[in-house]
Structures are given as structure tokens and as C-alpha cells.
Amino acid sequence: MPLQRRRFTQASLLSILLLLVVTAQAQQAWPSKPVRIVVPFAPGGTTDILARAIAPELTRAFGQTFFVENKAGAGGNLGADIVAKSPSDGYTLLMGTVGTHGINRALYNKLPFDPIKDFAPITVVAGVPNVMVMNAEIAKSRNINSVADFIAYAKANPGKLNMASSGNGTSIHLAGELFKSMSGTYMVHFPYKGSGPAILDMLGGSMDVMFDNLPAAMPHIKSGKFKALAVTSAQRSEAMPELPTIEEAGGPTLKGYEASSWFGLLAPAGTPPEVVRRIQQETAKAISTPSVKEKLLAQGAIPGGNTPEEFAKFIDAEHKKWAQVVKVSGAKVD
């Protein structure tokens, strides 16, 4: 081999080795700057509550700030799309939901992102039941004390009840649509950019009913501002065991009713697997610590922590489940 060619080959090999070393060091150095957790809804809802519960724990674990950024709109699709199109470097994460990664593909004709191909699942943070709540004063004025009372009033007064949700395609929206379909009632749907703004109008009395996530609704139930009628899960909630399920309270017409929520961390597709694994491991540790776990359970949330592979299989199953629910309920984007 000529000397000049040999020197060129050696230089090329050295360059490749240096690139590999630099790449390895960069991966080991993660995180070397703050990490953004995008919440695709307005502040105050369960998605936001859970993100802000784990962000300080991850900050302590990794020595870099994990901060929450709310990007509300389009039933969570706006924030999810931002993350889907972000660099796959581990510095932008999504607090995804059953809406963004289970319901919306069946509900919307076209999404700006693919909920499976464009994301790397990390872990489920928590699962929660929804709860059917009314403005307490409105419930009292209309003599509504149970699901049966609600159905009777709604049937006698079609279109006179306003139903708030955290946005089109969210579990809060679909839980209400499924209830309407199965009970033969009609309520006017008002989608908001998150549970927080919807709750404010519920408290103010311009909205009558909401199928909210239990953690967001619980403080207002305990304060007496909301009248809780039933939970939307298949079993009663340990946080409020006195509340019946909608299936229990609704009789034969609501047999089989179930519409619960979940929330989980995801990264853009292509994020290094070792980064995904580290976030999953530290998140699982965080939500299993007594202080965080007790906080979640007290709010009616069930801590998660599954592996990225398990989360990916779960998301696939959720797509199939909710596609059928959307079809049966007749839910449509307003």
C-alpha cells in the first residue's frame, strides 16, 4: 500500500474512532441541560398535576432541571405534534394520555402525527378513573342526587344540560359521549383546552356536568362545590369507595360502561434506547417512593412504572379498544 494512501486510511480510521468516542461521551453526558416535559393541556388538569408531581423527582435523580411546559389545543394533538417533531435527543418529552395515544386516531379523520411510529414509549405514570360530577348548586336546584335522577332529568329536558370536557377526543369527552349513547340522553358538549379551564366554568355554574379525571375533581368534591354521582371505571375507586360505578348506578342500560384514563411519558421516535430506559427506571423509582405514591393514591390515581416494551404493547391494545368505543358511542369531533 502506498505511504500516502496508508496515511489517509489511518487518518480516516482515527476520525471514525474520535467520532465514536465523542458520540459515546455525549450519550453518557445526558442530560447536560434542562429537559422539557410537554403537557398537551392547560394547567390545572390531571395531566398537568402528574407531570408536576414527577418533574422534581426526575430533577433530583438526574441533576438537571425537568420542567413542565403547557401546550394546549386540539384535544392534546397540538402538544403531541410538537414533541413528535422535536429532536430525538432526550431533551423533549411528552406527558401523553389515553386521548393522544389511544382515542384520537379513531376520532379524528387525520392527525398531524402518528401516535405509534412517531414516539418512543417510556412508561405509564398513572391510571385514573373519571368521575361524573355536577355543579353542586345546580344538582340541588334540579333535585339530582344520583345517576338515575340525572338520566330522568336529561330525558325530560333534552339539550338543557351543558357538558364540559378537557377537549375533543379526551377521555373526559368520550366518557360523556359513551354515557349519552348508552343512556339515550342528550347534553350539549363544550370542549375546553384542558380540564383546568373547564373546571373553572363548572365552578362558576355555566357548565352543568363533567366526566372529569378523579384527581382534578377530588378537591372540589371534598369542598362541596361538585356533586359526585359515580366513577366511570369498572370497579369503585379506593380513594372514594362510597361512590358507585356508572354501571352500578345506571341499571341495565349502562351495563358494561367503562371509560378510564391513563397518563404516560413518551419521547420522540429515535431517542436513544439507553436514555429511554434511564428515564423509565427513575420514573418508576419516583412513583414508588412513599411520598409520591401516597400522593397519587390519595388523588385516586394508580401508580404505573411499566417498561417501554410493556407500554408499547399497552398503547397498541388501547388503540384497538378505543376504536371500538368511538364506533359504538358515535362520538365525533365538534
Keywords:
334 residues, alpha/beta, 6-stranded mixed sheet, 13 helices, 49% helix, 18% strand
The main sheet comes to:
6 strands, mixed
Which spans of ≥5 residues are poorly predicted at pLDDT below 50?
Answer: 19-27
Tell me, briefly, the overall form.
elongated
Provide the β-strand percentage band.
Answer: 15-25%
Q: Mean pLDDT, as a whole number?
A: 91
The radius of gyration is 23 Å
Describe the structure concisely for a colleague:
It is built from 13 helices and eleven strands. It has 334 residues and is of the alpha/beta class.
Written overview of the protein:
- The strands form two sheets. A six-stranded mixed β-sheet has the order 2-1-3-10-4-11, sandwiched between helices. Strands 7-6-8-5-9 form a five-stranded mixed β-sheet.
- The radius of gyration is 23 Å and the shape is elongated.
- Helix content is 49%, strand content 18%.
- It is built from 13 helices and eleven strands.
- The chain has 334 residues and is α/β, with parallel strands linked by helices.
- Helix 7 links the parallel strand 6 and strand 7.
Task: Give a topology summary.
Blueprint: H1 3-29, E1 35-39, H2 46-62, E2 66-70, H3 77-84, E3 92-97, H4 98-107, E4 119-128, E5 130-135, H5 136-141, H6 147-156, E6 162-165, H7 171-183, E7 188-191, H8 195-204, E8 209-213, H9 214-223, E9 226-231, H10 246-250, E10 261-268, H11 273-288, H12 290-298, E11 302-303, H13 308-329
Parallel strand pairs: 1-2, 1-3, 6-7, 6-8
Antiparallel strand pairs: 3-10, 4-10, 4-11, 5-8, 5-9
Helix pairs in contact: 2-11, 4-13, 7-13
